[in-house]
Amino acid sequence: MVNVTTSRALILLSSLLCGHASAISETALLELLEPARKQMKMPGLRAAVRMPDGEVVVAATGLADVEAGRPLTNTIGIPGGSTGKTFAAALTMLLVEDGVLSLDDPASRWLGQHKWFRRLPNAESMRVRHLLSHSAGLRDYVDTGRFHTSMVWRVLRHGSARYEPEELIRFVHGRKPLFPAGKGYNYTDAGYLVLGRLIEAASGRAYYDLLTERILRPQRLLRVRPAAQSVLTDISTGYMGGGRNLKKDGRMKFDPSSEWTGGGLITTPEMLVRFFGALAEGEIVKPQTFTAMLEDGWQDPDQPEWHYGFGLFVNHRKNLIFHGGLWPGYRSRVAYYRSSGVAIAVQTNRDGKLDLAGLLDQIHTRAMAVMPAQSPASPVTEGVYLLAAPISSG
């Protein structure tokens, strides 16, 4: 098995032997984005492509605010939704590397003193690895009628619904576990909120402070910021069913500060591809740690083509890792193509059903078309190309 750092070095060496790994141009990127924006009726759409040598190309089209006619730019913030879970997972793995946490730590070791935790299904059997991989047997608060009833009431009374993490976690109390811990998969924001409280209990630090110190600042992800306020500044307007998601005072119906470790970050496509590239190439966690993030998690034998590792969806058939993000009025998606070392992210300021996965694949195809072809006539080049094959997910 070739480790992550070696794989990256070999991909880069292959590029050097065949000529510079030319980046897709902004013009070519826009030629893909604008038709997709019109076809899927998006107010605005933007993307970033990070090539194997680290060069990043960005492009944006359409409007950040339809009513004001304000164009979407590459730097204005957009809530990244659940793409923030990958940041939370990477931070957890750094604490594991430090010896502060173990993947096999029972969650009760850190949270067992709290009544809200003890009332959770599988409270005594869930471990850190189960929370990271959505395999703790927990439901999600958005799947409960109690949450939706509560949210409507708060919006009618206050104009916006804000929740503390424990309030959202309590919506999954009183239900039988979906499965024994570690024996199934159910995507749940509630589980990542539990993970957030566990991170803080183990480290003795506030989550956003620790994330900034350990990942955002060292990686110079300067345009990633916490969605920690009820009114977010310097963000695009979002659109839900054609309507604006922002009230006149800048608030949203679902207060963004409620999302926390379920996502909870304002970002841009450039920041997402830089983060995913650094994570995949051993610059944030150690290569063996990243391998664990890919290989762990419950794997359904009836769906061998994909599984959820630690904060990452792993597509075995396409040999890529990815995560999507949804927040009311916004959609994001980021992927790292392990066979090419190319990372791609897209964001739009509308929600609903959108084929962002297909768009990423189109962009990757165009990006690969501008990279130098491997020469089968050259035994040296061919050897490097074979060695640069990505590490196995199995």
What are its keywords?
single chain; 394 residues; alpha+beta; eight-stranded antiparallel sheet; three-stranded antiparallel sheet; 13 strands; disordered N terminus; disordered C terminus
Could you tell me how far the N terminus lies from the C terminus, measured between alpha carbons in angstroms?
11 Å
CATH topology: Beta-lactamase
Tell me how many strands there are: 13
Helix content, binned percent: 25-40%
The coarse silhouette is globular
CATH architecture descriptor:
3-Layer(aba) Sandwich
Largest sheet: 8 strands, antiparallel
Helix and strand element order: HHEEEEHHHHHHHHEEEEHHEEEEEHH
Unreliable stretches, pLDDT < 50, 5 or more residues?
Answer: 1-7, 10-20, 374-394
Question: What is the tally of helical segments?
Answer: 14
For CATH, the homologous superfamily is named as DD-peptidase/beta-lactamase superfamily
C-alpha-based Rg, rounded: 21 Å
Question: How much is the average pLDDT?
Answer: 90
